[in-house]
Fold these 2 entries.
Entry 1:
Amino acid sequence: MKTREIFRFQLYVAGAAQNSAQAISNLGALCREHLAECHEIEVVDVFHEPKRALAEGIFMTPTLVKLAPSPAPLRIVGTLSQKMPLLQALGIDSVQT
């Protein structure tokens, strides 16, 4: 039996801004549908952790950072609303669900 890879993400958001809420919702839905039980999402609020965001080179929100699996890291800026391009960019189109 092959072990499924864990997809690890960091999602940088700006508080309760509408575009941040949309990105959280869109990423959550995508992961539930395509990566059930094989994903980890860390949401980082740049208002609460501005030094961390700057240290990571995050200058716009929302920004999604794919940490794993390879190839990583990958950054995507926006609300993550375009599902098919997002799946392809993240390499999820080939994951067995």
Entry 2:
Amino acid sequence: MRLRRVVFDLLVYESVDELEQEDHILMNEAVKARKNAYSPYSKFNVGAAVLLDNGEIVIGNNQENASYPSGLCAERVAIFYASAKFPGVGIKTIAINATSKNFVVNKPAAPCGNCRQSISEYEIKQRRPISIIMSGETGEVLKCNSVSDILPLAFNSTFLG
């Protein structure tokens, strides 16, 4: 037996204002998208903005449903919409922003497991990483270079033969 340590680099910004211009614009789009989230049950509003290789920005927000869990997270709404509207165009970056009607979100909102796996599928499909920028209402902003940083042992159907 041997121990294998998995580590990754994570950029930590004190606020959104420290982001480079392209990332700042993308996060602003995620904030705008978040404002139209439909979250009557969780009261947790999430917006996502996806920057594509062609320069287009596609947004999404969480969409809840009384028939839980048939709703969708903002990240998957944005990625699936981007793929439907711009098939074959690669994804460069996804920005995620969250707030709550019940408490102040003072930590970055990271993608859930389902969203991490979905992002991973697109990384595999395009054979290159997708940067992820995460923020809450206040506090630090995090950026990682790839979903594999935050999902190092993703399920990959290519392992099945």
